[in-house]
Amino acid sequence: MTGFPARKSGLFWPLLLLAAFVAPMPALAELKALNHVDPKAPCFRWPAVDYDGDGVFDRIDRCPNTPKGCVVDEYGCSVDADGDGVCDGIDQCANTPAGDPVDEHGCSAAQRMGSKAARSATTEGTAEAPKSTKPASPPAARPSAPVSEVERQLVSGGKVRLENIYFETGSANLLPESETTLRDAGEALEKFVDLIVEVQGHTDTRGSGSYNTKLSQARAESVRAYLLEHFHLKPENVIARGYGETQPETKERNDEERLRNRRVVLRVLNPEVLPKNVKVEEH
Hints:
Number of helices: 8
Strand order of the largest sheet: 3-6-4-5
CATH architecture of the domain at 149-273: 2-Layer Sandwich
Shape: flat
Strand content: 5-15%
Oligomer: single chain
CATH superfamily of the domain at 149-273: OmpA-like domain
């Protein structure tokens, strides 16, 4: 009588059950991974990765390797309200006076003594709290990011053409390739909170004038919406306006010149808030 060795040894059925259990595991793992996505990723779904576990996805986390327990802002950078070098969440002594050296818990010698005195007073039946002799220090300023080309042009000329902004054909839907330039633009605008800018949309001359005006307006509004959603900007200071084909840069003698006419431009409307002695390009 012939048969499988496993069947002869009595292991056939246990091995068969084990194979039935293990086989679906990769498929289940793949299905589970599909649910871990970043719903706020622009234009498309992005894997929701957060390696330092601070609650901010790595896509926008500007401060990787944040220590465990630190309170972070929306960009994943730790918050230190009293500026003592120990982040909120780990800091056990808030409002440390400026300049006082602190321990790993964010407490100065005076605060440690005051804490002991308060505990002693409570034990002895007195409720008098220690008095602070110095005012609380303001939050430490975050270091400025390196100046981008977008910021340089915005400050030096009051007007910047946003290169590498792409939309779906005949649509105002931004493509993922646009994110780098939009991030540079948003970071530059954040440094000038009172700056009023016009987001200009322009098209080439193909199609009717009314269609191009509507399309350029929709694209300008799409860029404005992205900037307001991802950066700390005042909505009333960011204005979208579509100019259609009315302000061409070239005569459109070839495809390259038509491409130059399809553009998004940021133009400063109140140049007085920019650094002094800067000549702003006229519209």
